[in-house]
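We were asked to recover a plausible sequence for a given structure. The inputs and outputs are reproduced exactly as logged, with field labels preserved.

PROBLEM: sequence recovery
POSITIONS: 135
GIVEN STRUCTURE:
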């Protein structure tokens, strides 16, 4: 009976952690997208193809693309949805997922402040606790 309770708590933690990760990705996509709508025409008129200066000297439209669509937002959203799906299936992702998520957030926060990078530790800790309580 006790293992069912622990498993249920772990599953809820994993699902919630996945939702937090997905929300971070979705919020990044929505906020940076809204702030960079003015660059949208350049993304679709061919201006982005074969940049004259390569990727080392980006135009504002190219920088906006890498901040919005080319950023971590879409993979983070997908990762969050996958983590939530795993939780609903009764699975806890391996601990390295949590450590990589938290480590990536730490590096990002050290390089770029102020930023919400440290928020990645919220779901990372939830995943670590879920794994620990599962056994």
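RECOVERED SEQUENCE:
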């Amino acid at each position: 009976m006790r293992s069912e309770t622990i498993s249920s708590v772990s599953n809820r933690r994993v699902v919630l952690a996945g939702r937090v990760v997905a929300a971070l990705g979705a919020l990044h996509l929505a906020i940076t997208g809204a702030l960079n709508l003015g660059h949208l025409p350049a993304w679709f008129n061919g201006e982005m193809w074969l940049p004259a200066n390569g990727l080392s000297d980006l135009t504002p439209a190219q920088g906006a693309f890498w901040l919005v669509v080319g950023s971590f937002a879409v993979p983070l959203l997908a990762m969050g949805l996958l983590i939530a799906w795993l939780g609903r299936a009764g699975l806890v992702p391996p601990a390295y997922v949590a450590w990589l998520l938290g480590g990536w957030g730490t590096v990002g926060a050290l390089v770029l402040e102020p930023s919400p990078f440290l928020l990645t530790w919220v779901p990372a800790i939830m995943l670590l606790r879920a794994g620990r309580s599962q056994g």
